[in-house]
Amino acid sequence: MLNGTEDEDKWLAEGIAGIQHYAFFMHRALDSNNLREALKYSAQMLSELRTSKLPPHKYYELYMRTFDELKILESFFKDDSKHGVSVVDLYELVQHAGNVLPRLYLLCTVGSIYIKSKEAPAKEVLKDLGEMCRGVQHPIRGLFLRSYLAQISRDKLPDIGSEYEGDADTVMDAVEFVLQNFTEMNKLWVRMQQHQGPGRVTEKQEKERSELQDLVGKNLHVLSQIEGVDLEMYKETVLPRVLEQVVNCKDDLAQYYLMDCIIQVFPDEYHLQTLETLLSACPQLQPTVDVKTVLSRLMDRLSNYAASSADVLPEFLQVEAFSKLSNVIGKVIEAQVDMAAVGAITLHVSLLTFTLRVHPDRLDYVDQVLGSCVKKLSNIPKLEDRRAMKQVVALLSAPLEKYNDIVTALTLSNYPRVMDHLDIGTNKVMAMVIIQSIMKNYSCISTADKVEVLFELIKGLIKDIDGADVDELDEEDFKEEQNSVARLIHMLYNDEPEEMLKIICIVRKHTMAGGPKRLPFTVSSLVFSALQLVRQLQGLEGDIVGEDVPVTPKKIFQLLTQIIDSLSAVPSPELALRLYLQCAEAANDCDLEHVAYEFFTQAFVLYEEEIADSKAQVTAIHLIIGTLQRMNVFGVENRDTLTHKATGYSARLLKKADQCRAVYACSHLFWIDDQDGIKDGERVLLCLKRALRIANAAQQMANAARGSSGPVTLFVEILNKYIYFFEKGNQQITSSAIEGLIELINTETQSDSTNPDSISDAFLASTLRYIQFQKQKGGVVGEKFESIKL
C-alpha cells in the first residue's frame, strides 16, 4: 500500500513538472502574441490531464494547476487585437488539437468567450459543448472536464434577466443544458464503481468516489439558482428528470448523496408542493441506501419551514403532508426487509418530531405514529440494540417535551404499548423521564383512570419485573428512583373526595406490590396523601353506614391502618410508629377518640415489641410524648392510661440521662395551657422530682465510675422546667424549691471544681440572667419572680 502511495506521489510530481514545463513555453508564446505556439503548448500542457494513474484527490491537484493556466489563456483569447483571429474562427481552430481531452478543454475555454461575444446564441454554444464533451468517457477525466464546463458556463446561462437571455424557452434551454450535464456526470461517477475488485480495493474506490460527489452535486446547486425555475417548472421538469436519474442509476452512494442534495438545495416550499413526487422515489432506492437519514432531513427541513411562519401551516394540511410521509415510511420499511430496528425507529422519531411541530393539536396523528412503531416492534422478538433503545426513549420523550404535560401523553393509547417493548433498564430510565417531566412542569394528575395508566407506565420503578436481577441494583440509583416515586404521589390530587380516595386506592394497589424494599420510601407519601384528604373532610360524621356512603374520615383511617401495617413486612418499626402518631393527630382533629386511641395503642405495641435500639427508643418516646401533649380528644380515663404508659416507658430507658430528660418531658402531659381541664400541678411536681432523683443517681454513678460527678447540665435543664411551670402559675412549684435547686447546682459545681464544664456554666448563667430579667420587668411577673432569692 505504501509503495502505491509513493508511486502516486511520483506520478503527480511528474505531471506537475510537465504542466509547468509546457506552461512556461505557453506563456512565452502568449507574450509574443504567437497564437499557433500558444495553442500547441497549451494542448501539450492539457495532455498531462490524460493520465489514468492518479486517484481523484491527486488528479484534482493536477486539474487546479491547469485551471489556473487556462484562466491566463482565456484572457489572451479575449483580446483579438493580440492574435488577430475572430472568436468564430478561434472556435473552429481549437478543434484541430490532436487529442480529444486537450481539444475539449480548449473548446470550452473558447466557448466561454464565444457566448460572451454574443455572436451566437448561448443555448446553441452550450448545446454544442455538452455534446462534444461526450467524447471523454473515462470516469475521472470526464467528470473533471464536465466540471470545468459547468464552471465556465454557470454565469452564462440563458436565464431570465440574464444578458444572455434569448427568445422564448431560454430558461428551458438553460435547464436542459444543466440537466444534461448532471446526467452525464452522474453516469461517469457511477461508472467508477463498475470495476469490482477485492474488498479492500472496493472500499478504496468508495472513498475515491465520495471525494468526487461534490462535482456532481454542483449541477443541482446551479439548477436551484436559475431564476426562471419556478414551482411549475420544478414540478413538471426538473424534479422528475433528476429523480429519474437518481432511481435509474441503481447506485447506493449516488442515490443517498443526490437525494440529500435535492433536499438541501431546493426551497422548502417546492418540497412541500412536490412531496408526493419526491417521496415516491424513496421506496425505489437500493436497499442499502440510508433512507432514514434522507427522510429525517426532509422532515427536519419541513418542520423548520412550518415553524418559520404560521401562514404556511394551511399548505401542510392542503397537501396532506403527514399522511404522505407516514405512508412512505411504511413502504420504505416494507421494501427494505433487512432494515435494522434502529433505522425503523429513527424514522418514526423523525415523523413524530415533524408531527409535533407541524400538527401539535392532532393527538390522533401522534398516536398513529406510536401505533405504527408498535407494529414494527411487534415483529422483533426482543429489542437488544442499545441504539434502538435510545431511539425508543427519544420517541417516548418527544410528546412530554412538546406538551410539557404528562396528562396529554396519558391520553395516547399506544404510549404504554411502546414502553412495553423496552428492556428493564431502559424502562426504568423512561419512567424516570416521565416523573421528572411531571415534577418539572408541576403537572397534577387528577383522575383515577389517568393514575392507573401512569402507574402502568412506571411499573418498572414500583415493582420487580420478571427477569430483573435485584442483586445487581445500585443502592444509590435505587434510592433516587424510589424517592422520585414518593415525590410523584404528591402530584396526584383531586378536590372531589370520592375521586381522591379512588386515586389513593390505586396507588396503594401498585405500591403494595413493590415488595418490602420499596415500601419504606412510598408508604410515607401515601399516608400523607390520605391524611391530606382527611383534613379536607374534617367535621364529617364518620359513623354513617351503608353501601353508598360518601367518603368519611373513619373509612380513610381504616385504610391507613392497613397501609401502615404493611411496614411490618419490612420491618420498619420506627417509620411505622411515626406514621401511627401522625394518624393519631389527624384523628384528634376529626374528634375521633377511639380511632386516635387505637393509633396510640399500635404505636406503644411497636415501641414494646419492635424497637430495641436505645437511641431509637429515646427518639420514639419523645415523639410519643410530644404527640400526646397535643391531643385534646381523649377523655380522662384514656388520657391517664396513655400518659401512665408514656411516663413508665420514660423511666425505663437505658441511660440515666435519657431517663431524666424523658421523665421531665412527661411533666408537660399534665399541664397544657390551652386546656383548662389539664393543669395537674401535683403530677407535674412529681415528674420533676422524679427527674431530679434520676439526675442525682446519674451524678453518683458518674462519680463512682470516673471519680468525678460530671457536668450538672441535667440539673440546669430541670431548673429550667421548674422556672417554666413557676411562670405558668403552677402553685406546686414554689420559689423556695427553685432556690434549693440553684443551691444544689452551685454545690455540685464547687465539689467538682477540678473538671469545670464551660457549657453547663454558661447554661446556668443564662438561666440566672433570665430570672433577673423577669424580676426587672415589674408588674405581676416581676413581683412573682421577686420571691426567688439568688
| Unreliable residue runs | 542-547
Largest sheet: none
Question: What general form does the structure show?
Answer: elongated
Q: Span from first to last CA?
A: 105 Å
Task: Indicate the radius of gyration in whole angstroms.
Answer: 46 Å
Average pLDDT reading: 87
Fraction of helical residues: over 70%
Overall number of strands: 0
Q: Tell me the fraction of residues in β-strands, as a range.
A: under 5%
In oligomeric terms, what are we looking at? single chain
Structural class: mainly alpha
Number of helices: 40
Give an account of the 3D structure.
It is found in: Cytoplasm; Endosome membrane; Golgi apparatus, trans-Golgi network membrane; Prevacuolar compartment membrane. Plays a role in vesicular protein sorting. The chain has 790 residues and is an all-alpha fold. It has 40 helices and no strands. The radius of gyration is 46 Å and the shape is elongated. The model is unreliable at 542-547 (pLDDT under 50).
In short:
With 790 residues, the protein is an all-alpha fold.
Furnish the topology, listing elements before pairings.
Blueprint: H1 2-31, H2 35-47, H3 56-78, H4 80-83, H5 87-93, H6 100-117, H7 122-132, H8 139-153, H9 170-191, H10 199-211, H11 213-225, H12 231-249, H13 252-265, H14 268-273, H15 275-280, H16 291-308, H17 313-318, H18 321-335, H19 341-358, H20 363-378, H21 386-403, H22 406-410, H23 415-419, H24 424-440, H25 448-457, H26 459-462, H27 475-489, H28 497-512, H29 519-536, H30 553-565, H31 573-589, H32 593-609, H33 614-629, H34 636-651, H35 656-666, H36 681-706, H37 713-727, H38 735-751, H39 758-777, H40 779-786
Helix pairs in contact: 1-2, 1-3, 2-6, 3-6, 5-6, 6-7, 6-8, 7-9, 8-9, 8-11, 9-11, 9-12, 11-13, 12-13, 13-16, 16-19, 18-19, 19-20, 19-21, 21-24, 24-27, 25-28, 27-29, 28-29, 29-30, 29-31, 30-31, 31-32, 31-33, 32-33, 33-34, 33-35, 34-35, 35-36, 35-37, 36-37, 37-38, 37-39, 39-40
